[in-house]
Amino acid sequence: MELVILIKAFILGMVEGLTEFAPVSSTGHMIVVDDLWINSIEVLGKYPANTFKVVIQLGSILAVVIVFRERFKDLLGMNSLKENRSSKLKLSHILVGLLPAVILGLLFEDYIDEHLFSLNTVLAGLAIGAFLMIAADLFRPKVQAVETVDEITHKKALMIGLIQCLSLWPGFSRSGSTISGGVLLGLSYRAASDFTFIMAVPIMLGASALSLMKNWMYFNAEFMPFLVVGFISAFLFAYLSIRFFLKVINKVKLIPFAIYRLILVGIILLIFV
Fold first, then answer.
1. β-sheet bridge partners, residue 187
2. pLDDT tens digits, residue range 169-202?
3. Are 201 and 64 in contact (CB under 8 A)?
4. What is the DSSP-derived secondary structure letter of residue 170?
5. Rounded CA separation 252/9 (Å)
6. Could you tell me which of 191, 271, 256, 241 has the C-alpha nearest to residue 22?
7. Alpha helices for 68-118 (secondary structure H)
8. What is the pTM of this model?
9. DSSP 3-state assignment of 185?
10. pLDDT bracket for residue 81 (50, 70, 90)
11. Pairwise CA distance, residues 103 & 64, whole Å
């Protein structure tokens, strides 16, 4: 496989890793970078290109698991003998938070794939999601009732899950919707971010598993270097992105990310539309 093709895999993995968990919409960035520049479909073909996008998501998922490894061990009961879990985030909170988006995603999967994955709809999602983030910063409760992710109730987990359904619209951003929803419900920025990232693992794993089952036949020796480079790139950049984001989110909040999204929409409209 030519070096230039592997460089394209590295770039796509980097874009996925940097944007998957930041509130800027990885889908929007992938469409801009891939469909308007890299053109992985021309390099690999339609179905292998779709498989590649699933594989690099798995790299991002692995990064979350490593960053939150102690938390996942706790959720799975592996630390249950060391401390009292009565006031801690439990697996049931995650399941309650995931339920709305899973149900709607399964019901409308075909419609979303057929009608919502276009440049115009993604731009709309980017813009509307940005205004939600601005609203979260401006109208959040003055007193944060939930300082850490361990204080989230099942009711708040369900309400955040309902708001997460907005991210089914490509470009809206799963992180953007859930963090904004959490902040509006009285969570600290760090608590909302932690819950968002932890909740992302099972939903992304489920979506990736379904896609891989549809496209498993495209894993062959010819495309493996492209897949491996993309996976490693996505993992490395996702790990760095998550660590950085969690350090700064309480300080910078959401408006800077919203402004970036609006600027990105403006640039794309000027150049490509």
1. 146
2. 988 999 999 999 999 999 999 999 999 999 999 9
3. yes
4. T
5. 31
6. 241
7. 69-75, 91-115
8. 0.90
9. coil
10. very low
11. 24
